[in-house]
Design goal:
Layout lengths: L7 E4 L5 E6 L5 E5 L6 H20 L5 H13 L2 H14 L1
Antiparallel strand pairs: 1-2, 2-3
């Protein structure tokens, strides 16, 4: 049974929270999360970013730059901005 894809959350030296996910076959990127998020909200955002990354990587017609741009927006997006990212992912996947 294949492993469920995961991301990782970490704080940099300045205390900023990031999520790190695979954006290519063996290529990981880190995306800053909104600093106003609570720990619970950050966990949900991490799960969302991982899900978006998995879906975009599975769609072989999406360029790496587009994946990174969408994940950057997903990491900090809320409300309508986040819904727009999810809608864009739905279209390309």
């Amino acid at each position: 049974m294949p492993r469920r894809p995961t991301g990782s959350r970490f704080r940099n030296d300045a205390g900023r929270l990031y999520v790190r996910v695979l954006v290519g076959d063996k290529d990981r990127e880190s995306f800053p999360l909104d600093p106003k998020l609570t720990a619970e909200q950050a966990e949900r955002h991490e799960e969302l970013v991982v899900d978006v990354a998995v879906r975009l990587r599975a769609s072989r017609n999406v360029a790496r730059d587009a994946i990174v741009a969408l994940l950057e927006r997903a990491a900090v997006g809320e409300g309508r901005a986040l819904r727009d990212v999810i809608a864009a992912v739905d279209v390309v996947c």
